[in-house]
Amino acid sequence: MMTDVVIAGIGQIPVSEHYDLSLRQMGSRALRAAIRDSGGMKPQALYIGNMLASMVSHQANLGALFTDYTDLGPIEAYTAEASGASGAAALRLGYLAILSGYVDTVAVLGVEKWTDLAHSESEAAAATGLDYDYESMQGMTEAAQAGLLMQRYLHEHNLPADALSGFALQAHANGAHNPNAYFKKAIDLETYQRSPRGNAPLNMFDAAPNADGAAALILTRRDLLPADSGKPVVRLLGSAVSTDRLALHDRSQPLAFDAAKEAVRSACAQAGIMPIYTDVFELDDSFAIYAALTLEACGYAEPGEAPRMARDGLLAPSAKLPAMTMGGCKARGNPLGAKGVYQAVEAVMQLRGACGPNQVRDARLALTLALGGPASTAVAHVFDRMQ
Fold first, then answer.
1. pTM recorded for the entire structure
2. For residue 78, what is the domain's CATH number?
3. CA 58 to chain centre
4. 134 and 78 in one domain?
5. How many whole angstroms separate alpha carbon 268 and alpha carbon 224?
6. What is the β-pairing status of strands 234-243 and 213-221?
7. Cα–Cα distance for residue pair 329/306, rounded to 1 Å
8. ω into residue 196 within 30 of 0, thus cis?
9. How far apart, in whole angstroms, are the C-alpha atoms of residue 308 and residue 168?
10. 230 lies in a domain?
11. Is residue 342 within 8 Å of residue 87, measured between CB atoms?
């Protein structure tokens, strides 16, 4: 009989420019919050999702750093790195560790410190998720690459430059009700259209702001949950990872996010569902074009039709496919390697019924998908609320 892996606790700090907090302080705050939410469960292992600590904070060996600073003791602890999917990869490690029977309770931490570098240095750091020899060393950045993808997409489908505006408008509408969001203000179409285009046709609202953040989860077996937790029980039903060619120019069809498609298909197959039956989809909107290509790759929209879904409000919390329900990367902010853990925390909140004005009615199934680069790596998870 397969073990039920459940989420015992969640914790997060607001995504922001935390100039007053160090990497260790941010991560420890999120970890302690998750442990408190679990009723004080003690993890036997800690898996950390991080992309840039060795470059930005000059700190490696994060397992020892956080077990020491958070007083977790001499437990197994180390970092998973998969670019922007690092946090989701760490969650997968925790899930598999419990399924294996090796441990009963684990902590998963996603943490990223971004603001300690100057802009030019931080952009170069973020570009390490691309192919160094053939992309970033030649001057390519994540935003420039997303602009090229968007240009090709608009050309292929004969769409105007503002076609993807619905993703930003929906994300900001949701972020306005998230106390942990970087941006808590809704925007309108006119604001979107007036914004500058740094990597045309990509404008400022087509790209999520990179920022500092930390979020954490406590995973355990169902039979070990405290009997008096008083919260709905959320289970992790499926987990999958897939990869594609690293350099975008090596793909036969750059607009096909095949790794995203395969990760979602596999995670949903493990959960015994089809993707269309999920109530919540916390997708990766690091760039609006990523969100559009993800929806199309995963079968939610035909090629060229995803922008219409966003424009027509079909991704709103009260609509057919609620997505980016707490603001997504665009409004909540993009904490890079921590992104996948924030998505998981927000999925758990939805299934617990704890999202306030952004709550999806009767949410029982949630899907998360974090991407490393333009779906070079994709990690998907399926959660459900147990009866």
1. 0.97
2. 3.40.47.10
3. 24
4. no
5. 26
6. unpaired
7. 18
8. no
9. 13
10. no
11. yes
Which pLDDT tens digit goes with each residue over 180-189?
999 999 999 9
Which tokens hold the place of 123? 């952009």
CA distance 280 to 126: 28
Q: CA–CA distance from 350 to each of 171, 281, 282, 317 (Å)?
A: 16, 11, 10, 10
Task: Give, rounded to a whole angstrom, the gap between the first and last alpha carbons of the chain.
Answer: 18
Closest CA to 182 of 365, 17, 7: 17
- For residues 220 and 94, membership in a common domain is answered with yes
- Regions in the chain scoring below 50 on pLDDT: none
Distance CA 284, CA 227 (A): 35
For residue 250, give the 3-state DSSP assignment: helix
Which of these three, 161, 190, 224, is where a domain ends?
224
What tokens does 319 get?
């609509």
What is the tens place of the pLDDT at every residue in 103-133? 999 999 999 999 988 777 888 898 999 999 9
What torsion, rounded to 10 degrees, do the Cα atoms 162, 369, 342, 202 define?
-20
Query: Does a structural domain hold residue 299?
Result: yes
CA neighbours closer than 13 Å in the CB half-sphere of residue 380 = 29
Say how many C-beta atoms besides its own lie within 10 A of residue 209's C-beta: 17
**Residues 219, 178 share a domain:** no
Q: Per this entry, what is the length of the chain? A: 387
DSSP string for residues in 257-303: -HHHHHHHHHHHHHHT--GGG-SEEE---SBHHHHHHHHHHTTSS-T
Measured over all CA atoms, what is the biggest interatomic distance in the chain, rounded to whole angstroms? 58
Q: Do residues 355 and 349 make contact, with C-beta atoms less than 8 angstroms apart?
A: yes
Residue written as token pair 């410190």: 113
Same domain assignment for residues 138 and 100: no
Helical axes 258-271 vs 288-297, angle rounded to 10°: 50
Q: Do 253 and 134 share a structural domain?
A: yes
How far apart CA 359 and CA 380 sit, in angstroms, is 22
Q: Which residue range(s) make up the domain with 96?
A: 5-118+211-224
Tracing tokens 């469960």 back to the chain, one arrives at 41
pLDDT in tens, 272-288: 999 999 999 999 999 99
